[in-house]
Amino acid sequence: MGFYHPQLRPKPKPKPWHPSSCYFSCLPSPPPQPPAPLTPPSLAPWTPLSPLQKTANLFPIRREVYGDGRIFDITHRYTGDMPSMGSENGLGQFLRLPESMKNGSFANISEMKLITHTGTHVDAPGHYYDHYFDAGFDVDTLDLEVLNGPGLLIDVPRGTNITAEVMKSLHIPKGVRRVLFRTENTDRRLMFKKQSDTSFVGFTTDGAKWLVDNTDIKLIGIDYLAVAAWSDLVPAHLVLLESREIIIVEGLKLDDIQPGVYSIHCLPLRLLGAEGSPARCILIK
Ligand SMILES: [Zn+2]
Asked: From which residue to which does any coiled coil extend (predicted)?
């Protein structure tokens, strides 16, 4: 450790001003500005398309499989005709276009109104536990590591709910953390039927208990709107959500995919305070 003579001490370089370093502290605060009116941005640089150009080759491609058969979209498309629990006539209109270019707006801007447990979606612990709901265990708290990683797509025996006996018969190895259960709900194409149906299959309470007690599964996927059979709806959900370690993904589209090991990816929205959220889910081979 030494001391510089004051004249020999290297002069500190003047710091270049950086907007992020002292933007708020160094500058006198600007006078408050009135909010700018929302005027449409100029369209000048663009040449309007001719009517022929407007309609040429405008055929959107909608896919279920991407990347030469490697990526499967296991999310149901949101439509007014998809089932909604308790509805005879499906989801109905959930999307509208309050700002429409046909009505003179500079852009199309739609808005939606949707129960958060519609279509392919996740359940957070607050869905069935009110004290978890109050404490904030919402979809924003779900672990992305659980929602993304290797897992199994398996077929369960048909003609039965997922009971303890069925779970036992599946011989899911310890260490498997993510399992998507394909059931007869897929064969019956229940998610493609407008009218909601309570005859779907799902976990019974003893099946859920068996899973919690005997497996390492933390992500459970199912192919209808509820993970638990209608008769066991509340108790089976309670068993699965109690530890707050298990994430439930409901309403998956598992048609036409070989059972096996996949990389599962599920991304719910960060809806603060919501106990459910639509999620985009894919499988990668
Ligand atoms: Zn749900």
From this structure: none
State in Å: Cα 257 to ligand 1 middle: 23
Question: Ligand 1 centre and the CA of 157: distance in Å?
Answer: 23
CA–CA gap between residue 136 and residue 133 (Å, rounded):
5
Q: Decide: pTM greater than 0.85.
A: no
Look at residue 4 in the predicted model and tell me its pLDDT: 44
Measure 194 CA to ligand 1 centroid, in angstroms.
18
Q: How far is the CA of 27 from the centre of ligand 1 (A)?
A: 50
Length of the chain counted residue by residue: 285
pLDDT at residue 123 in the model: 98
Ligand 1 centroid to residue 122 C-alpha, Å: 6
Ligand 1 mean position, distance from CA 186 (Å): 17
Q: Which residues of the chain carry a pLDDT beneath 70?
A: 1-31, 36-45
- The conformation of residue 122, written as its DSSP 8-state character, comes to E
Q: What is the DSSP string of 66-115?
A: ETTTTEEE-BPP--TTS--TT-SS-S---EEEEE-GGGT-SS-EEEE---
Question: What tokens appear for 130 in the block?
Answer: 């009110």
Task: State whether residue 228 is helix, strand or coil.
Answer: strand
CATH superfamily entry for domain 121-284: Putative cyclase (3.50.30.50)
- φ, ψ for residue 174 (rounded to 5)? -60, 150
What letter represents residue 251's amino acid? G
pLDDT of residue 26: 47
Residue 3: partners with Cβ closer than 8 Å, 6 or more residues away: none
Give the environment of ion ligand 1: residues with CB less than 5 A: 117, 123, 250, 276
